[in-house]
Known about the structure:
By secondary structure, chain A is an all-alpha fold. Chain A has three domains: about 15-170, no CATH class; about 180-250; about 265-405, no CATH class. Chain A contains 16 helices and no strands. In chain A, α1 (about 15-25) runs antiparallel to α2. Chain A is globular and about 65 Å long. By secondary structure, chain B is an alpha/beta fold. Chain B has a domain at about 30-175 and about 250-295 and about 320-380: Rossmann fold (3-Layer(aba) Sandwich), CATH 3.40.50.1110. Chain B has 15 helices and eleven strands. Chain B has a five-stranded parallel sheet, with helices on both faces. Chain B has a two-stranded antiparallel sheet with strand order 1-2. In chain B, a hairpin with a 3-residue loop joins β3 and β4 (about 60-65). In chain B, α4 crosses α15 (about 365-380). The longest helix of chain B is centred in the N-terminal third of the chain and has 25 residues, at about 1-25.
Amino acid sequence: MMLGIAPIAVNSLPFIAIAIGLVMLAWSRWRGAFLPAMAVASILVTLSWTRPIDVLALGLSLIPPYIAVRFVWGRTNFKSSSLISLLVVWEVLLFIYLRKYEWAGGLAWLDHPIAVVGLSYMLFRVIHLLVEAPSLGHLPFSSLRYSTYILAFWTLLSGPIQRYEAFCKGLDSVGRPETEDILAASHRGVNGLIKAFLIAPVFLKASNLEALGAPGADWLDFAIIFYCYPIYLYLNFSGYTDFMIAIARLCGVKTLPENFNHPYIARNLLDFWGRWHISFGVWIRTYVFTPISTGLIRRAPPSAHNVLLAMIVVTTFLIVGAWHGTTLNFLIFGLLHAAGILTTGAYGRLLKALLDRDARKAFERHPLVHGVSVLLCFHYVAATILLFPNSVPDLIAAFGGFASS
Amino acid sequence: MRRLITIFFAGLLAFCVLELTARIYLFPQYRAMLPDMYAAHPVLGHYNKPNLHVRRYNPMNYDVVNRTNSLGFRGLEKDRENELAGIWVAGASNTFGGFVEDDETYTAQLRRHGYRAANLASEGHGLISQTQVIRMLAQQGYKPRAVLLGITMYQAISDYSSAGDVFTQPIGSAFQPAAISPKRPRENLREAASELLAAIPLSLQPVRARLLKSSALYGWGKVGIMGIPMFRDWTLKIGLRNDLYLVRNFDLNLLRPLTSGNPATANIESTARYIAMLGDLVEQQFNVPFGVVLIPSLQQIDPESLRRFTTHYGLTQEDLDPSRAPELLLASLRRLGVSALDTLPALKGSGIPGPKLHFPDDGHLTASAHAVIGRAIASWLSSGMDKGATIGRQE
Lengths: 405, 395
């Protein structure tokens, strides 16, 4: 590693020290130095995870956008979008190359040892800045802000994905929160640590698919396998996010976005994506779904709108799947979610055709309908999430073997 | 309330900074106090991890590196085959020599005297597990020039009357559980939940072990502080450090008159018979010389330790002699036709004071003692191991 020290993980003493150090700085009269201190802390955490070759890749990924963003910052009359498009394409291609996608087999000859942590989240922030730079002229921009925004230690590894406006607003509000807010944030942070690092691992261990082949495994065992990984994923990810949001709030920064809102009680997949990894969902909608759908549908005849929309949904969720992981499994995950979203849409249209507005609302709000919807949605999501840790052949073998036993 | 919160966070920050400072400057050796050295072994139950490279540190005692080859034997990978074609030295912790450098163990010292030797020992191993090591190597096609068994008084002496099967049963069956079937998911869940509950300490011992492994501040307070001479006596006085001379980790009967009524007598005979059977195994498997190297106890090499021990426990009126057991074991071994070397005369004759032959806080042998023992073994090998079976020097 670059600094010759162990990677600074979230549950490590150096991380806690950095976090509390920043909290104390934010509470002190020297809070004006918060930004440089945050920059140093973020660079330190990043370098602890990287080797020289990773830093080189990081430079290739972050420096060209910085120069471009600096150039177009606040220039609302900037006409040439080709520069931005070129850089977005560069970022995406570099990302695909660096992530070593299993299904991008054609790139195997370009194999490399680079492994940059947090690259996926950096990509989001960089693209956001590239696209929005001309309209952000009212906000300050400097290399210090850029590096802190991109590498911010509290969002480096797993988000949440913050917009630049929110980042700047957060910096402006750095200071000592009210006592109630401090206690609430501390409570949330400790809860987050407990969720992510104490409770979640219990469910991870129990989600081992091979165990379904154990002699005497029955439906209770099947249920344990089926539910444990989704529970683990939620506890781990939301616990981590809770911890990060808590640190930011203790520093007076209230603009780190929420990432979860009880996702497993969503009524349908559309609702689910509004509750699960929210900042990611918002980003995808803003920078993938909306631009593509607006651009294409405007040009297409109305008769093709439905088919076109379906294709855009599928494309969007293929990107969602590919972002989550590098294997074919994640593409299948994306396709299944696209199918779920399209089915939800079709079901909504069917209800619309059958019932008037009030009757439809009453039907959807009926406790039985609502309960069944939630159960169906949760089980569909849980089934697709099983694709994260397991390959399709393994899943078929394990569940097939269980069903035939 | 605001003040309390500030004090809490400032305290937490101060602790983190202190701990990090301790990790970097004050006591970076904290990771070397309880290194993770062992792994489950398919045949031997537990054994040294292969390709190990760990530092072991205890101030005023040792600061060394332990390395193992790809089979888990003490030494370097590049020497593995050469060493296994030489003399095999089996044994436990003193033979493994975990608190001296790789080239300071008495096995490694043999090389200086012209003998290549493989160190098969492992800390915590006994005669039975070392028998399995020898049988495993035989099964893998290795053949030694001679086999030596290092025995430290009084650890190896036990009742082996029911251990005869070890020589005949399939290798590893004494340790290997039946074919492992995967656990059911509910068992995995229950186990994981139990582990979580087990993380809640019910006694101070696991907390201490965890702190020693993970906190440089605690490690310094517990162990590092002993590296400062002015604190050494104080740590002993307040009980932070055990008095080595008062540790009661042996069967007192072994020091008492070895009459027929003393159960230790039967144990010594049983140990000798077991070792003789091991000698027979070596004879049958390899047809090479076999011998025992007797490493004296702390009480033998450092008489002050016995004086302090008997005074502390009120045993001054008892007839205790630390050399009774080794003498009887030697006599029994020779009666059974097993070559044996008592290294006590060499250690006493070395002119090195007793307390310098073992570590101050640990009864294991120092590098000086290993050197003396290595020299004594080399001389014994070249003189025929009491039986005219001279082992020629190789290099």
